[in-house]
Amino acid sequence: MFAPASIPPRFRDAYARAERRLIHEVMVKSAWVVLFVSAITNGSVLIRGNSLIETDPAWGYGLRLPPLLVSIFALIMHYRRIPGFDWPLVMLRLISLSAMWSVFGTLVFAYDQGGDAFRMMMELSIVSIFCASLVSLRGLRGCLFPLFVPLSSFLGVMLYRGHPPAELLLNLLSFVSASSIAVLITHVLYRWRVSEFISRQQLNEMSTVDPLTGLMNRRAMAERLESERARYHRLSHSFAVILLDLDYFKRVNDEFGHQAGDRVLREIANRLKLHTRQQDCVARWGGEEFLVLLPDTEEQGAMTTAEKLRTALHEHPFEIGNRPPVSQTGSFGIAVYDGRESASRLIARADQALYMAKECGRNRVVVA
After folding, report:
1. Are residues 188 and 82 in the same domain?
2. What sections of 275-338 are H helices per DSSP?
3. Strand duo 330-336 + 281-284: pairing
4. Alpha-carbon distance 125 to 328, whole Å?
5. In angstroms, rounded to a whole number, what is the distance separating the alpha carbons of residues 135 and 259?
6. Residue 4 and residue 8: Cα distance in Å, rounded?
7. What is the domain count for the chain?
8. Is residue 213 part of a domain?
9. What is the tens place of the pLDDT at every residue in 111-122?
């Protein structure tokens, strides 16, 4: 999925998910609008027995039916919940293209007919241009397929039919001007949407990420724990938490300074992320406390992970600049969700196990 270069790399996955949702939503709404307009247009032609614009019957059906059929097909795919990330974008482009095919194709005949028919189709074409550009969702790049391709094809057909370029440009001046304005507005809206997304993500990051370690903060982890509890009650998937407290960490700050302590905390955060799975969540729970959430994990799996983390701290001293490496250990408390307790009670049990690990000599793992 396309992501502009102005979006920081850490936000691009979130942008791709948000764009997929937006494209799907716009695709469904566009399909209903085009379906409704096509039904009215085709219905009025059937009632009158002829169209206001004189065309060959075959051309008439060939211009009116594609938007109707494409919209129906898109809605069927939506309501049947067809899997796949890319088809809503493809269908949105086809809806725009078929609608512009119908409008521009009819405009070719209206241009030759002149009079009220031409003026009516010009107004409809201008409205269609704005609609097609607004649903492109990707600024100038998004307008290429649904707008520029049918527009250039229309102008090519008009020139092929022998219309003088100067006369054609004069008669279609408002049409070309409207196209330029529509593309400009679309690009401005697109840049505004991207800027708003970045601002929203930065604000969310400030409220959910610990600024020193880059891990989730306590608030974000509390929300994640509640989500995991709800998931357990839906699917009965067990989960566990590991509460880690660094042993004698105050001595690092006292002997080497707070900057060295911050470096150790950042390196510990990196090691915790390195030795946990992608689906696991790691948070800075307090000053030198860290909490690890392990979805789909029983007691034995939690003990294995905790031992891996303990070893990663104990066996590899921490570099703090020009001074000798600092040895840092941690004590670990484990609690597995019992299916009934609150998140705070689960953390309290892990804290009790952590206290036992401290009492038993530190640098060890205890299960609640």
Report:
1. yes
2. 299-314
3. unpaired
4. 71
5. 51
6. 9
7. 2
8. no
9. 878 777 778 788
